[in-house]
Design brief:
single chain, alpha+beta
Length: 802
């Protein structure tokens, strides 16, 4: 230990004697370590820390999907939930839930309350002890006993002041019928650490939903489950697919085309950002490797220039172990200095990443603590060893008599040159993989922001409106119509309408459809359905391709009509003329006449795929007690503050949400690809810069080693091209070898990257060749600059230099 401390002191003096090298090496390590630590700071709480419940590895999410659309998953109906519980051999407990916005009318009149309705088994799947009172049980989930609620810990503190006697108090809540609910308990803070429930304020029972258990096609419950002990995820998948096939046989009308997907709950909670974070963490690991090889090459060059010094130390009694230990100590000093600076980079970069990116689940758990310090120390230790090892091996194996004869250390060393070429080749290979990934990310972002969504999001806004459920049928439709008429009189309003959902807003509701005239043996098709007011398509900017729009004549007692999108007409009506076709919605079996066809829209801008089959019904014929009022205006900032008051003036019982600008939703959808593009692009730029430095250093060092040879060749009449070829040969070999390895690595990692980032543009020849061309161009420039300087060497001066 004393010897190593002595070596550290010697290393400090050596670095102080060469501050330019020390600064370059420490800065390179600082940037790489800081970026790696920053990504670890985010990845650890989001992906690596388990969910805060007992045996979190047993928690799964379950969804339904159609056989013909396995990537479009849905929730489950309450009937399916019961079937899964009864027929599965691998599920210990299963629970369903859904969002349930409410308004509070006591103490805080008209206050919006974000609620969640759950089945009682949620506390078996996610076992917790209540902060106060008790949890739900099976007996509670029945009419007459179900008007009870649990409060989230934050809502208890903010709205009840942390009152220890809150259990037994009542709240008047409305979503549908206004009712008095009794508080039976307060949930602990840990329950809100699950991202799905982070914003929830009150929890109520699933049976308060008037649609609860209405039919098997109403797949609007998200499902969490706990696996039986000893059961793997794969076993659960196989078991639930068996259950899905069994249900398809039992209920061909509702389940004939549906099966069940199972995945770890942590993946469901993190969402698609998880794949992006994994890919970015791997990318920053590449940057760290490139930085280490770069500094290792610098350290090797510096160590070779000190061979005469090392030879003298061996001649007076030092052994190779002492020399190797001294070089390792020097490498560790570089890594420690770089790591300390890297922590400052980490704290700045984490804030920048979180600010630039989309909302990242569990991001509130990002912090600087002992595990981050331990991780940083570990990568610094590894970096120090990687930086020092090649130099300590190669320089201590050199011949003692040769080292004593060298004097200034300028004699070429073929083995060291091969190692430096290898280092540069590795840097270039890793850089090409990163540059290709960044190129694809840029293409993805460009595709998202330039996409034509099928409607016009500019100057468009919407606001949610909920009608008390005691208002029925025509009364609801009349309220919506009056609200639209009132908003239409506002200044700057160009068009307005109402719809149950729309692109980027509203819930996804599906319905089974059978086309009249098709064989009854053919399975029913599923389509997204909407209830809309007239002029919805005009307001949204959706093109009417054929037929007509809804009008005021499409009343409740008029013939039932519908409008479908182009995908519906192509897929479900096939070659039949869509106008006048008759379909039977699975909900009630009535026959509906199709009177129009509209163009497809993009369901999710991130996927750039058009929506599947969609069918629209007029509100006057099929009412819902929740809707979105949609407004197009040339001055939204003026109009939006007036919406809520104008709607409530129609009926004070209407619950109005906060207005949302649709263009903001589009921008929010683009944040995830922009986040990936910015980070991958930044990491690729660092990798490209470090690789260029590596190529430059290789040629520059080769020039310094061969100064006398260059002078001799020039004095004997060698041409400029000959000297350039002589100096650039090693760098060109490194560029060619590194490029080949990088292309092979990019192709090999393509599937891994596609799995981690399914929304990214696929790997194509264009992106690969453009990335390769960029890398080669930078490498050639970095190779040419020092070689050109060598051509200015005076032969007489070069011959006297050694």
């Amino acid at each position: 230990m004393l010897a190593f401390l002595r070596d550290l002191r010697y290393g400090v003096r050596a670095l102080r004697a060469n501050p330019a090298f020390a600064f370059a090496a420490a800065t390179t390590i600082a940037v790489a370590v800081g970026a790696t630590a920053a990504m670890f700071s985010i990845v650890r709480p989001v992906l690596l820390e388990p969910l805060p419940f007992v045996n979190p590895d047993r928690l799964v999410s379950m969804e339904t999907f159609r056989f013909d659309s396995p990537n479009r998953t849905r929730g489950a109906s309450l009937q399916e939930l019961g079937d899964w519980k009864e027929q599965s051999h691998t599920i210990a407990a299963v629970a369903g839930w859904r969002d349930w916005g409410m308004s509070r009318h006591d103490g805080a009149p008209g206050e919006s309350v974000y609620g969640v309705i759950v089945t009682p088994d949620i506390f078996t799947v996610l076992p917790v002890q209540p902060q106060l009172g008790r949890l739900f049980n099976d007996e509670d989930d029945a009419q007459g006993r179900n008007t009870i609620v649990l409060l989230s810990h934050d809502y208890w503190l903010s709205r009840f002041g942390g009152d220890e006697h809150v259990v037994g108090r009542t709240m008047v809540l409305e979503r549908g019928p206004r009712a008095t609910y009794t508080v039976v308990g307060v949930l602990p803070p840990v329950f809100s650490e699950l991202p799905s429930f982070a914003a929830a304020q009150v929890f109520a029972l699933s049976s308060i939903d008037p649609d609860a258990g209405r039919n098997r096609n109403l797949r609007n419950r998200r499902v969490f489950a706990r696996l039986t002990d000893g059961v793997s995820i794969e076993q659960a998948r196989q078991d639930m697919q068996r259950v899905g096939r069994q249900l398809a046989s039992q209920y061909p009308d509702s389940n004939g085309q549906w099966n069940v997907a199972v995945r770890p709950l942590i993946e469901e909670e993190v969402g698609s950002i998880g794949g992006a974070l994994r890919a970015l963490f791997a990318a920053v690991g590449f940057v760290l490797l490139i930085a280490c090889t770069n500094v290792a090459a610098l350290q090797l060059a510096r160590a070779l220039s000190r061979r005469h010094e090392f030879a003298i130390r061996q001649a007076v009694g030092g052994d190779r172990v002492d020399l190797a230990r001294a070089l390792v100590a020097e490498g560790l000093l570089i890594a420690i200095i770089g790591g300390a600076c890297g922590l400052a980079v980490d704290m700045w970069l984490v804030d920048a990443i979180l600010a630039a990116g989309p909302a990242i689940p569990r991001a509130d758990r990002v912090r600087v603590d002992s595990s981050l310090l331990a991780f940083t120390a570990l990568i610094c230790l590894m970096a120090g060893v990687v930086v020092a090892l090649p130099a300590s091996i190669l320089t201590t194996r050199s011949d003692l008599s040769r080292g004593l004869r060298e004097g200034n250390g300028r004699l070429p060393n073929a083995r060291a040159q091969r190692w430096r070429m290898t280092f540069v080749g590795v840097q270039l290979a890793l850089a090409l993989i990163l540059i290709t990934g960044a190129t694809r990310s840029v293409q993805t972002f460009a595709a998202v922001v330039t996409i034509r969504p099928g409607f016009d999001p500019n100057n468009l806004a919407m606001v949610s409106v909920v009608v008390p459920v005691e208002k029925k049928g025509g009364e609801v439709a009349a309220l919506y119509s009056r609200a639209i008429d009132a908003i239409r009189t506002l200044p700057h309003v160009q068009a307005t309408t109402a719809a149950s959902a729309g692109p980027l807003f509203g819930g996804i509701e599906t319905i089974d459809i059978r086309v009249e005239g098709h064989s009854t043996s053919e399975p029913k098709e599923s389509a997204r359905y909407f209830n809309i007011e007239p002029e919805f398509f005009k307001t949204m900017g959706i093109v009417l391709l054929a037929g007509r729009d809804f009008t005021a004549e499409d009343r409740a007692n008029a013939p039932a009509v519908a409008i479908v999108n182009d995908a519906f007409a192509r897929r479900m009506l096939k070659r039949q003329d869509p106008i006048g076709a008759r379909v039977s919605p699975g909900r009630d079996g009535d026959i509906v006449n199709i009177v129009g066809v509209v163009s497809d829209i993009v369901e999710d801008p991130r996927t750039r795929t058009a929506a599947g089959p969609e069918i629209f019904f007029p509100y006057a014929q099929q009412t819902r007690w929740a809707t979105y009022v949609v407004v197009r205006s040339d001055n939204l900032p003026v109009v939006l503050p007036l919406l809520a008051d104008r709607i409530r003036a129609i009926d004070s019982s209407l619950r109005v949400g906060s207005p949302i600008v649709v263009a903001d939703l589009m921008a929010r959808a683009a944040r995830a690809p922009r986040f990936t593009m910015l980070l991958l692009g930044g990491f690729a730029a660092i990798a490209l810069l470090l690789s260029a430095i590596g190529v430059y250093g290789l040629v520059n060092y080769s020039t310094a080693q061969r100064t006398r040879e260059i002078g001799l060749r020039l004095s004997l009449g060698a041409g400029r091209r000959d000297i350039l070829a002589l100096l650039a040969r090693g760098a060109i070999l490194a560029i060619v070898g590194g490029s080949a390895a990088g292309i092979a690595g990019t192709v090999a990692l393509n599937r891994v990257m596609a799995a981690a980032l399914p929304l990214m543009e696929p790997l194509g020849t264009t992106s690969l060749l453009s990335s390769w061309g960029m890398l080669v161009s930078v490498g050639v420039v970095a190779c040419y600059l020092p070689a050109r300087r060598a051509l200015r060497i005076d032969p007489a001066t070069a011959l006297r230099s050694s």
